[in-house]
Amino acid sequence: MNPETGTGMANKSPPPDPGGYEDDDARVRELLRLCYEDGILPRDIDPGEMAVQGWNVRFKVKDSFDRIKVQWLKERTITVIFRDAARFLSRNVKEDLIRAYEDEKVQTSEFGKGFSRGRVKLESLNVASYVAKSTTIFAWLMEKQSAKVVLGGDTYRMEFNLWLTKAQLREQRRLEDLSTFWVITVQVPLDAMFYLEAHIRRAIDPVILTHPPERDRLKPTLVNIKFDLDPGARPNMKDSITVDTFEDDELEVRRASSDTPRCGKCRAFFHTTDECRRGGRFHQQQGGAGGQGGRDDVAQEVSSRQIYHGPLGRGEASVQPATSVVGGGLAQPPDISFANIYQNLAFMAVPQAMQPNAVLTQLLQELALAQAGSSVPLG
Ligand SMILES: [Zn+2]
């Protein structure tokens, strides 16, 4: 019985902040190492200023502290981007691909005994962060910039970039947007396609590059076409172009550019993530031709988002289920099809009880071949 509350349960307040934290550079760096290399979360660091907001709590962490953290991560973290078909490799294969590089260095004993692996965190389907155990591996990958790995006859491409914080990514995107100007014509009707480039040239500016048409995510029967233009022509941007035909019909093509609202969820233009009603009634209204059409749109959109089609897609027939997943672990929820190295006959022939290192061995062999031509000496 607790004498103060009159119940058997003690209602504990959070402990008082003991304060008096030292935060010299060397100590913080050692704590960072323990955290990201050994997985030990520091207990006695300055938690920052706490503000309780109802059921939520917010901490403003100490500037000097946070700067050291970012600096430490930037010295050894690489953002790995899986291009094209490599996006659809399973989680485990992606991790193995990244780690194959450090494994190669360990095998040639360049790091001596007791060297253990860096941390891989998959951020999304095509992006992973890799915290290298050594700044040497970091420098080596940054110098390589990209890698092509051939697995069972297919080539998978990875790019290695500097890791950026959220704020730095935002700033990078802003600068990119300033230095480039593109227009996407959205949901182009067949008979308006003919005039597109000439109309853009006349109304906005001559086209520098016309990208291959891509299936529209909301209406897969229509295509979107992207045009690169001179950034100086940005003030000429038009939201839509209407074509009057000889039969007095109107064909309207909507334009989107980097300033157009775009949904982070379904990647469609003209609505924001907050306004997204993907999978809701929104699409049935958009479908126009009754509920059935609307439902199809939703299903199409979900599948076209998840499956790599190449520039114009390979049609609905390309939706293939993963035939066999051996020790791979799914990169996405299991109901979604994806290209997978195990669809390759060479991999399917591997017995169920394959050794866990078989894939890695294969990777290392392929990697050795891939690097034979363009070996970057380790500094
Ligand atoms: Zn959306």
TrEMBL record:
**So which domain of life are we looking at?**
Eukaryota
Compositionally biased region (Polar residues): 1-10
Instruction: For the region Disordered, give the residue spans.
Output: 1-24, 279-298
| Protein known as | Uncharacterized protein
